[in-house]
Amino acid sequence: MKNYITLILAGLVVVLAAVLIGVMVYIQNQPAEVRAVQPLVEIAAMEPDSAQWGINHPNQYDTLMKTATNNVDTTYGGSSAFSWLERDPRQVILFAGMPFSKDYNDDRGHANALDDVNETKRLNLNVDDPKRTPGTCYSCKSSSNPGLWKELGMEAYDAMSFVELGPRVTEPIGCANCHEAETMRLIVTNPALEEAFERQGKDWTTFTRQEMRTVVCANCHVEYYFKGDGKYLTFPWDMGMKVEQMIVYYEEAGFSDWVYPETDTPMLKAQHPEFEFFTAGSTHYEAGVSCADCHMPYVREGASKYSTHDVHSPLLNPEEACGQCHTNTEYVVERVAIIQQQVADTKISAEDAIIDAMNAIKAAAAAANADPALLDEARKLHREAQFMWDFISAENSTGFHNPEYALEVLAKSTNLARQAQMLAAQSVNDSSLLATGTFYENK
Ligand code: HEC
Ligand code: HEC
Ligand code: HEC
Ligand code: HEC
Q: Does the structure show a pLDDT above 80 at 350?
């Protein structure tokens, strides 16, 4: 009898403990704010003005506003918007014939996004020019967008010119780019992301909260292109999200961003594929770490604990950004320095190889006797080499988000560039076109 009572009591304790753990896990999984405060004002759906949201959530608003004035640099990144063209003059050559050779600055804080796009020298404001800058360029710069996409539809939005759309895009990046007003949950706001997932058979509304802490950044931090005359914003993910698969996608779509002068190569410009690069099997991604873990760590202010919305280089606050998981913060920051230096050096070797290939193709294309098939094959490899290099170069972490993958892609890029150079030399039977270091000679 006594045994039964002990058993029943023990059973009860186990059940109660399980319920308690369940409740705690549930609460843990709710955003901090849901656990705490009642809203002061009701926020309209897709409200573009972040200050309105800020009435309910002052900590998140104040920290988001700090991104406007951040100005500290790190070795390879930071917030000063330094010029990549000045830092690495090879890029003036690599982007010759297209707007990035005129103006290419490092990224800075979210609150500056709208000013920076309006002020870049890359814009073509002539609305009658078929090459005019499309309105699509505003897609990742403003919290006015979710409302405009709802009102106009993305097709009509993208069909407008930058100049026409400009007056309607009034706010920099803000709350409405990442949150649903009613619930404050993280959401996909960019129709191009939703459509890319749909074509992959994925439904983002089924993603976990931890997944959304990465996916919300994919509203903008991705590779994309403007499809067709309507400049329809499209992510090239249908064959997969690795760089080789994107190249196949672009090949089949017959897409190129510009034609390289004198070599006549149809080229691709990579954008900022942080999401694809990070999720391609990186150690952190495989361990379940999210973008927000490093870039928006929890901070404490008096009694409240919230996600800092002051998004910038985690090397400026490694105790908060890395210290939550790594006990030896100094060690991991040192690892970042080593990884980035290796990637940056390897990147320069790839650039030198591509420039040698370009010079060989130019010379072969100018000669009367070039074998057209070999020359075309050289152009194809040139296109692929440069896109692979750019995929790593335009990705903003200098390889840190996925170090092994960065070095693999750069090695492939260098190999393709050297093959392109050899084919060009072969096409005119001229071994002088195998010269290396032509960047340094021309300088
Ligand atoms: C494990 C931590 C970690 C994760 C996870 C992470 N990052 Fe980073 N991120 C870094 C570090 C470190 C740098 C390098 C900063 C530097 O060079 O100053 C960086 C750099 C960046 C930069 C450039 C910052 C600058 O100063 O110019 C951007 C943009 C960025 N990350 C976006 C993302 C996105 C988007 C994701 C998710 C897809 C992500 N990061 C995931 C640690 C992380
Ligand atoms: C770039 C995307 C982004 C923008 C812009 C953004 N947030 Fe967030 N926000 C996040 C992420 C990521 C989290 C973490 C969510 C989680 O863990 O579930 C978060 C969390 C929150 C939370 C939950 C509590 C917390 O701090 O973790 C609140 C409230 C919030 N944000 C309010 C705002 C407000 C108000 C604005 C505009 C002033 C804003 N956010 C802008 C991405 C964003
Ligand atoms: C609505 C589009 C959008 C979303 C969503 C977005 N970003 Fe950005 N992000 C940008 C743009 C555009 C810039 C560059 C702004 C500039 O240079 O003026 C940028 C810049 C950055 C930088 C560089 C800041 C600096 O000071 O150098 C980091 C880091 C970053 N984003 C991380 C993230 C992370 C992490 C997320 C997800 C939590 C995210 N972003 C979500 C568009 C977005
Ligand atoms: C949310 C947890 C988390 C955060 C935040 C985090 N890391 Fe990690 N990191 C991990 C895990 C898990 C691993 C896998 C190896 C392990 O278990 O130690 C790892 C591994 C690493 C490695 C070794 C990578 C490799 O491929 O062997 C480096 C370097 C590193 N982290 C740097 C950083 C830096 C720098 C930051 C801050 C910018 C950071 N981490 C933030 C969880 C985290």
A: yes
